[in-house]
Amino acid sequence: MRSEERLATGRIVLVGLFVTALVTAQLTASKILLFEIPFSLPFAESALVMPGAALAYALTFFASDCYSELYGRRAAQVMVNVGFAMTLVMLALVYTTIEAPIAGFSPVGQGEFSRVLWSSSNVVVGSLLAYVVSQNWDVIAFHAIRERTGSDLLWVRNVASTATSQAIDTVIFITVAFWAAPTLFGVGTANTLDEILALVVGQYVLKLGIAVLDTPFVYAVVGAFRDRGLGTTPVTE
To answer: What pTM was estimated for this model as a whole?
Structure first.
């Protein structure tokens, strides 16, 4: 495969992965997961408690870091902002489908369909706000580190940018979705401080672990799609 074709394929694969993981995260955000661990953490103790979106959402940072390395800051920010727009489109489509009249012989009832596909407004607001801030920070931090380290140390900018952006995302989402929105607007029931801290710790530990473990895969993806003629320089800045 020629270098131009390889780069073009990389764009499609990474944008597809980014948007798929992003939409999946939005649809799975309302379920709370619990993973037992063999040691104790502050607030979380021996269990990692997190929204279901944490698993899929972690993949978006993997995809954006690969995309940033291959195609530059501007292209990555375009992908992030287009992803935000597509999330709004997805929410609009899901909402209109929920509100549309249901056939009497539908195998899925109206209430069941709505409960599964539509997150409460506090979760939607929290996830959208966290996304805009953390994803843009991830791209900015990634390239700020790249400017200081040059083309080397991809693992440093991958782990550092993801670790900081995931912390920002976790704090904003959990605080807004499970405390601020319910408290200020009466949407649902606000969680206690201990529950909020448990959610923050549980979600961030998982995301940080994924950020560290995905580094070899970042190298593999970048190596597979990089234009050999350009060495380690991204296509655009």
So the answer is: 0.84
